[in-house]
Amino acid sequence: MAGKVSRRSLLKGGLAAACTLAASTLPVAASEITDERQQLATLLDIRKCVGCEACVEACAEINSPKHPEPHKPFPKMYPTRVKASDWSDKRDVTDRLTPYNWLSIQHATVEINGEETELTIPRRCMHCVNPPCVKLCPWGAAKQLDNGISRIDADICLGGSKCKKVCPWDIPQRQTGVGLYLDILPSFAGNGVMYKCDRCYDRIADGELPACIEACPEDVQTIGPREEIIKMAHHLAQEINGYIYGENENGGTNTIYVSPVPFEELNRVVTKGKGMPHLEPVRDTMAQANNLAAAMIIAPFAGMAAAAGKIYKRSKE
Ligand code: SF4
Ligand code: SF4
Ligand code: SF4
User: Fold this and answer.
1) What's the per-residue H, E or C state across 253-284?
2) What's the distance, Cα to Cα, between the start and end of the chain in Å?
3) How far is the CA of 76 from the centre of ligand 2 (A)?
4) Residues near ligand 2 with C-beta < 6 Å?
5) What is the biggest distance separating any 2 CA atoms in the chain, rounded to whole angstroms?
6) Using CA atoms, how far apart are residues 220 and 122, in angstroms rounded to an integer?
7) Which residues line ligand 3 (CB under 6 A)?
8) Cα angle vertex 276, ends 273, 279, to 5°?
9) pLDDT tens column, 87-109
10) pLDDT tens, 35-80?
11) Residue 61 burial (10 A CB sphere; 0-12, 13-18, 19+)
């Protein structure tokens, strides 16, 4: 059955450390990724990526039912400094993250053993272990599942972009003219909904692989229990004399990259900017007491918004 959990990109827990590179060929029990209590992480072996963008296409196709269909014209906003963000006529853009493109490929030309080499790096939400986007969302629209996946509930999000502001990689992307704000605060709310990779949480719940992993012809990504993925990353890094990104960034993420060249070097040469995340070292943003205090203050709003979101969802149905 294509895409089911017996595929070789899945890591058999417990055997990973011993088997490292061979691990991607191991079968796995469905319970390994459908077990909601298990923190799931992905390992991306940058050496293997050929930049074919099959993963990008698969992500767009599988997730298209979740993409925004905005109402136009957009309501006029007060204050006017809240600008509309409209990607609905640019759905084909793939060289950066947008509300319609949750995965993009970065290019880096580097020298490896004296030879000029082009590396390609798939970029999407890092799925932080302690995600500031979730903890600091004023409306409780961003959620973290027990298996470590973070996602934004489009029925609750008001598009205020707090999640993007607190994300060290500026991952979530806003589309105007869609969501709850149109019904409750069409001129005053954040004007839209934020979108990002949800690590195909619904496919995982059904025992299927995330679409980008299933589509990759080079088995760049491996998904499995975080502890095993970390062991595997260390083993691989040791074997290729390589470098790890994501184990400790922002206090640890569930997306672990292994590269044959230092990430400082990759970060220097990749195109960075809006929708194009960096590869810098990131301190633990949630370790700051003021952030945690802010999270507690906003908690009551989250309950109110969740209730409004439920009503909105029912009215849509
Ligand atoms: S990378 Fe950004 S959007 Fe993704 S979980 Fe971390 S804080 Fe949230
Ligand atoms: S995990 Fe799913 S949503 Fe995330 S980039 Fe891959 S295909 Fe897209
Ligand atoms: S499908 Fe695989 S090889 Fe192709 S760009 Fe995506 S991760 Fe790289």
Assistant:
1) ECEEEEECCCHHHHHHHCCCECCECCCCCCCC
2) 32
3) 33
4) 58-59, 62-63, 102-103, 124, 197-200, 210-212
5) 62
6) 9
7) 49-55, 105, 120, 122, 215-216, 218, 220
8) 95
9) 999 999 999 999 999 999 999 99
10) 777 899 999 999 999 999 999 999 999 999 999 999 888 877 776 6
11) exposed
Can you give the pTM of this predicted structure?
0.86
User: Which residues are within 8 A (CB) of 193 and not within 5 positions of it... i.e. 6 or more apart?
Assistant: 68, 99, 152, 154, 157, 158, 159, 174, 175, 178, 179
User: Considering only CA atoms, which residue is closest to atom 4 of ligand 1?
Assistant: 125
| Rounded distance from Cα 221 to ligand 3 centre (Å) | 9
Written as six digits, the tokens of 150 are: 């973070």
- Which structure tokens are listed for 100? 């319609």
- What is the DSSP annotation of the chain? -TTBTTSTTB--TTTHHHHGGGGGG----THHHH-TTSPEEEEEEGGG-----HHHHHHHHHTGGGS----SSPPPPSSTTS-----TT-TT--SS-BTTB--EEEEEEEEETTEEEEEEEEE----BSS-HHHHT-TTS-EEE-TTS-EEE-TTT-----HHHHH-TT---EEESS-STHHHH-TTTS--SEEE---TTHHHHHTTB--HHHHH-TT--EEEEEHHHHHHHHHHHHHHHT-EEESSSGGG-BSEEEEESS-HHHHHHHS--BTTB--------GGGSHHHHHHHHHHHHHHHHHHHHHHHHHHHH-
- Of 162, 167, 278, best ligand 1 pocket probe by most atoms within 8 Å of the beta carbon: 167
CA of 285 from ligand 1 middle (Å) equals 11
pLDDT digits (tens, 9 = 90+) for 106-160: 999 999 999 999 999 999 999 999 999 999 988 899 999 999 999 999 998 988 8
Which ligand is nearest the CA of 142, by number? 1
